[in-house]
Amino acid sequence: MKINSIKVAQLAGVSRSTVSRVINNYSNVPPETKEKVLRVIEELGYIPNSSAQVLAGKKSRTIGLFIYGDNNDKNKILDNGLSFGYYLDFINRVLKEALKNDYQLLVDVVNDNDFSKVVSLYSNRDIVGGIFIGFKEKEKNIVKIIEKFSPMVLIDYLLNPKCEKEGIYYINTQDFQGAKEATEHLINLGRKKILHIAGDKEKLSGKEREKGYLNAVNSLGVAPMIYNGDYSDEKAKQIINEILQKNVEFDGVFCANDNMSYCVNNALKEKGIENIPIVGFDNLRNTIPLGLMSVSPDINTLAKKAVELLVCDNLEKEKVSFVKTTLIKGLDEYIKESYLD
């Protein structure tokens, strides 16, 4: 037997519209009627159609979290997730904030060929709004999404956005400052030949971290040594092995993310090379215990701000905001600044 709102109405002795008002928690239903309808719903095990509720005017209680990546990124998550670590940590924080606000979280990895999923979720009002992270600047599909839908929060997407549309928000990590501080720390350790294995230069974070590195080395008269790692484990391995094979002299390394710093560290260990300080970015769980340093973005605040911008109607909302970064040099600072809670 098909269970629907008509059957619920018959057994509860009320109209179908009354059942709809109870499901959507309208206030104009007498308490005894509401109790009777809810009892029948429970007895039948009836599950209201969420799309129908949205069409009836009820706001969705699902947040979309969309991460830009390709099929290789999806495979990394299915594999062990380690090289996708920053995003996994961010998902965890967003989920906690969503649950605090009584919302569900839908997570997906999207690429240039499957933006239709995002369009469908917005068009059907299956999500209250979306958080977008890892997207390349001015990528045509994300530009179309911004033009057509709202609300949405874009993480590390544009530094000075010109979009005046209501409901579009930007949160950026202090990538420039964090990279500058990391490089200056290596210089203060007496290092003069500092490698920078850069991130994806089509993304704001990659560009800003390289700028921070350049600002530090140029202001102190240290020659830049930049290699494009593209946030890729494989490229970082290839770069550091080629550098070692060619006997390029260096005495410090700043990597644009922690995963690349792991590759550099492993390569140096295999060659028996010690006493070369390495700084990464993201403060992943394994970085500091491995004896490496890392720039730590405050992703608790990042996640909290992103969720609140979507679900808190009475909040004063900034169009563009920034979250701090902290250089973590050892276990004491790691514990003090830990964002794992």
From TrEMBL:
Membrane-traversing stretches: none
CDD domains to which the protein is assigned, alphabetical: HTH_LacI, PBP1_LacI_sugar_binding-like
Domain HTH cro/C1-type per the UniProt entry, residue ranges: 8-47
Keywords from the named record: DNA-binding, Transcription, Transcription regulation
Record bears the keyword Transcription regulation: yes
Record Gene3D superfamilies: 3.40.50.2300, lambda repressor-like DNA-binding domains (1.10.260.40)
GO MF assignments: DNA binding
Domain HTH lacI-type residue range list: 8-57
Protein name per the record: LacI family DNA-binding transcriptional regulator
Top-level taxonomy: Bacteria, Fusobacteriati, Fusobacteriota, Fusobacteriia, Fusobacteriales
